[in-house]
Amino acid sequence: MMAEPDVLGISRLAAGLFVEHLGPTESGPDVTMVGIGYAEPHCDRLWRGHPGVISEPMPQHVLVTWVGLEEAVVSFAIGFGCDDHGYYPGLGVISGREYETRRTRILDGKPPTG
Predict the structure, then answer these.
(1) Residue 76: its pLDDT value, please?
(2) Contact 74/34 with Cβ under 8 angstroms?
(3) Residues 6+ apart with CB under 8 A from 59
(4) How far apart are CA 58 and CA 68, in angstroms?
């Protein structure tokens, strides 16, 4: 059984913070398309639990660079905003070790958690 996610709060918002996607698994052109190309062959979707790093920590539009989707729409155009309580319900904080474990799984063509 997985532990409850550590939902990102605005007080911890910072560039370089390791995070996970807490929303449902998403796929398709709206997530992965990049101009005339697509995401890396091993990464065709943004998984629930997908690892990433905050690249733009603007409070109302946080951008995350997602592993395997670095050049995809989801990493440069789709942001997260905080709720009325100062939390980002779509983003959970993970450790550097957990980030690396999930990153390896994604790059091996597997879901981030198993």
Answers:
(1) 85
(2) no
(3) 10, 13, 81, 82
(4) 23
Do residues 29 and 46 touch, judged by C-beta distance below 8 A? no
Asked if residues 14 and 57 have their Cβ atoms less than 8 Å apart, the reply is: yes
What beta strand segments (E) does 10-112 contain?
A: 18-21, 26-27, 45-46, 51-58, 61-66, 87-93
| Amino acid, single-letter form, for residue 78 | I
Read off the pLDDT of residues 5-38 as tens digits, 9 standing for 90 and up: 899 999 999 999 999 999 988 876 666 665 544 5
Closest C-alpha among 50, 46, 61, 40 to residue 94: 50
- Which residue, 102, 88, 113, is CA-closest to 51? 102
Reading phi first (left if > 0) and then psi (alpha if -120 to 50, else beta), residue 35 is in left
* Domain ranges within the chain, ordered by starting residue: 7-107
Answer whether 89's CB lies under 8 Å from 7's CB: yes
Looking at residue 9, its amino acid is: G
